[in-house]
Amino acid sequence: MFQTYWTDKLSQKRNAKYLAIRIVCILDKFLIDCVNVVKDDGLSYGQRSQEGFLEPQVKTPEPPIFPEDVDWKSINPELMYKILSFPSDIETGNRAIEFASNISIPPDFEDWFEERKFYYCKFGLVAYRLAEKLSSKYKIKKKVYNDWDPVADLENELMTVTKKREKRIESYKLFVDSVLPNRVTKSK
User: Fold this and answer.
1) In what helix (H) or strand (E) does residue 153 lie, and over which residues does it extend?
2) Cβ–Cβ < 8 Å for 28, 131
3) DSSP string, 171-183
4) What's 80's DSSP letter?
């Protein structure tokens, strides 16, 4: 009986490490995809489109697809939930980005580019933190980026875009207040 218990525990531990390695690889790739989206300034070789517009040069990545052939029950349920719900969070963010495309004004489409950058900074950082938790727990050597820190890049970009976003939102509020001076606004 003890031998069966011990064998099951060893098997669960191996299954958890195997799952962690596979997920970390997927999240590492998604992190780099997010950095590429964040760095997309809409210029092709430094040039606008023929119409003078900024256009995305980097395709928005699909939410990560996690393997089904692993034992998800072998890892902590809270961590499992965070990993498995991550694609849904990305889809929600993509809807916000899509909404921004509907109100974004040419030729710069500033609202859309900012929303895209904002969300993909966040998604990249979440991917990194999830991979970090798995790597730490299952003793997986983390990927090394020579002479470059994608996490610091995303954190800096997120601070910058958050400030710009807050200013834009504030200017919208001021405009609405000037058009509808008697409206009641909710305080934060």
Assistant:
1) helix 150-179
2) yes
3) HHHHHHHHHSTT-
4) H
Which residue type occupies 170?
Answer: E
Q: How far apart are CA 82 and CA 70, in angstroms?
A: 16
Local structure of 47: helix, strand or coil:
strand
Bridge partners, 47 (sequence order)? 44
Q: What is the pLDDT of residues 3-56, one digit of tens each?
A: 665 566 677 789 999 999 999 999 999 999 999 999 999 999 999 999 999 999
Residue position matching structure tokens 């699909």: 62
Structural contact between residues 43 and 55, judged by C-beta atoms closer than 8 angstroms: no
The pLDDT value given to residue 24: 97
Angle CA 128–66–121, to nearest 5? 30
How many whole angstroms separate alpha carbon 65 and alpha carbon 12?
Answer: 22
CA dist 51 and 170 (Å) reads 30
DSSP designation for 140:
P
What values do phi and psi take at 46, rounded to 5?
80, 5
Average pLDDT over residues 112-135: 97
Q: Give pTM, 2 decimals.
A: 0.87
